[in-house]
Design brief:
The chain is an alpha/beta fold. It is built from 16 helices and 17 strands. Heme C binds next to helix 3 and helix 5.
């Protein structure tokens, strides 16, 4: 089953990458791009450049345009004389006088552009700073380069401007998730304001576009399209739109837009980086604990799910447990379940969990119960006393993970934003999502592309958040934590007792 799901995801990815629209460049523009990015000519001849005040001759491949002006043509913030933005729009369009580094000059033409690149003089006759090399170009090279400079602005990822980097999210303003959305919005606004006050990231201010996904899948798809296609952002951060559960991964892959935030169950998408473990990994942490400490793998075990949408996940878990040596496991919908089982893994929201414990209590039956804290947290005070030390919960983080500075930073944020301890897990996961995204953005430098962002996210390891175990991703790894702490409930109370610390779940494949 697992293999089938993975194969399905792979097919989707292949389809998606074929559909993705790459910028169509003519052969001449492509040759210009190579010259711009790598300093290589389309002919066999080597391109040279004279550098510095002493006119030292070096291969252009040592000083390609992109090394100073950026692959995106937006220049770099660091250094003394700033390489100007190289968009055709700014250089050549319109009649007004323009200025860069204190020089004033009229619009460039193809001929004056060639002169700037080859001789270091602008259309006003001003000498350019000698940091800008003088390139020795054939006519064909110069033609190709001009052709590409006209397309350069289209050849960069959307959402990146000279002064800003635009992120997007989906947060409902009405309905059952509006309260949670407010919490996410507050954490994002607070952190982004802080980053911008510090000067932004590589000289760019972060901008957040927040759209309302509306009441249903249609409206959510529309809002998503706005962020991915109509008015695209660079990346998505922490959206709350469960209506997109089944389509989000495919749409992100088509648009090649990365997302840092909660992933749909079993999404397995290259574009989605989830700071915290999914339901699957959390339930497997519980299973590993139960196997090692309660010796339950021979017990009659049922994976009971309240919501049809989680049937696939329940089946997946059934097979994962079988692969781990559990002998009598079955996935069952809560409605069809006859109450049997000595160990119950529960998938569903809190009210169904209460329904389940009430029914079991009435039947005089107290099997071991395993559930994920984020799903059932609100209902734990209702768990009957008979389940003392027989309910086990997965928590991605526990108070013991909080450092003094992490605790302080979170409580300062709560105070500024009028938040309290409710929805603490959501506050922390949003905080972590933004931290991972901004850490990766810092790593890629000013020359930002989505492709680089994905690679940078993959290269994050041991990220200290002060609020969770260290987070990290990897080439095939899209969850910041691949498992959870195990906590049991002691009655009366309930008192929460951690019984096993976080450890990444190890995948086991049946022979
Ligand atoms: C070593 C860094 C460096 C490299 C490599 C470089 N440039 Fe520049 N470039 C600069 C700097 C710095 C300036 C600004 C000079 C000034 O304003 O006096 C500049 C200015 C320019 C200008 C003038 C822009 C204006 O607004 O007047 C153009 C056009 C330009 N570069 C194109 C290129 C092209 C095309 C290449 C590659 C073939 C290239 N540059 C390679 C650093 C570089």
């Amino acid at each position: 089953m697992n293999a089938v799901l993975r194969a399905g995801a792979l097919v989707l990815m292949l389809v998606a990458s074929c559909q993705a629209v790459a910028l169509d460049l003519t052969p001449s523009e492509l040759a210009g791009k190579r010259l711009y990015r790598e300093g290589l000519s389309s002919s066999d001849a080597q391109v040279s450049a004279r550098v510095g005040a002493a006119d030292m001759l070096v291969p252009a491949s040592v000083v390609p345009c992109a090394s100073c002006h950026g692959a995106d043509g937006l220049g770099r913030a660091e250094g003394g004389v700033r390489p100007p933005v190289l968009s055709w729009q700014r250089l050549a369009m319109g009649q007004q006088l323009r200025q860069a580094n204190g020089r004033y000059y009229p619009a460039y033409t193809e001929a004056t552009l060639a002169r700037a690149i080859q001789e270091g003089r602008d259309p006003g006759g001003n000498q350019l700073d000698p940091v800008m090399p003088r390139f020795v170009l054939s006519m064909a090279d110069q033609r190709n380069l001009n052709a590409y400079l006209k397309r350069l602005a289209d050849d960069r990822d959307p959402g990146v401007e000279e002064q800003t980097l635009r992120l997007g999210t989906l947060l409902p303003t009405q309905g059952p998730l509006a309260g949670s959305a407010k919490v996410v919005a507050a954490v994002l606004a607070d952190r982004i304001a802080h980053i911008n006050q510090q000067g932004g990231i590589h000289g760019r201010q972060l901008e957040l576009v927040s759209l309302d996904p509306g009441p249903d899948q249609d409206s959510a798809e529309k809002a998503l399209g706005q962020l991915l296609v109509q008015d695209p952002v660079f990346a998505l951060i922490a959206p709350l739109a469960p209506a997109l559960e089944s389509t989000l991964a495919t749409r992100l892959e088509q648009a090649k837009v990365p997302l840092v935030g909660a992933a749909p169950a079993l999404a397995d998408s290259v574009q989605i980086f989830d700071p915290l473990p999914g339901l699957r990994e959390q339930l497997l942490s519980l299973a590993d604990y139960a196997q090692a400490n309660l010796a339950l793998e021979q017990a009659v075990t049922r994976i009971v799910y309240a919501d049809e949408a989680q049937a696939g996940l329940a089946r997946n878990l059934e097979h994962a447990l079988q692969d781990r040596g559990w002998s009598d496991v079955g996935a069952q919908s809560l409605n069809a379940w006859n109450g049997e089982g000595q160990a119950i893994f529960f998938l569903g929201q809190g009210d169904s969990f209460t329904q389940l414990t009430a029914a079991l209590k009435q039947a005089g039956h107290t099997p071991y119960l395993f559930a994920v804290s984020s799903q059932v947290a609100g209902q734990l005070p209702q768990v009957p006393d008979a389940w003392s030390r027989r309910v086990f919960l997965a928590y991605p983080f526990v108070p013991g993970d909080w450092t003094a500075s992490g605790r302080e930073a979170l409580s300062a944020l709560r105070q500024r934003q009028g938040l309290d301890g409710r929805q603490g897990a959501l506050q922390v996961s949003t905080w972590c999502a933004l931290q991972l995204l901004t850490d990766a953005l810092k790593r890629i430098g000013r020359d930002a592309s989505r492709e680089k962002l994905v690679l940078a996210l993959e290269s994050l390891h041991d990220v200290q958040t002060g609020l969770t175990p260290p987070l990290g991703f990897g080439p095939g790894r899209r969850q910041g934590l691949a498992g959870a702490h195990v906590v049991t409930l002691e009655m009366p109370g309930p008192v929460f007792r951690p019984v096993a610390a976080y450890r990444p779940v190890v995948e086991v494949n049946s022979p």
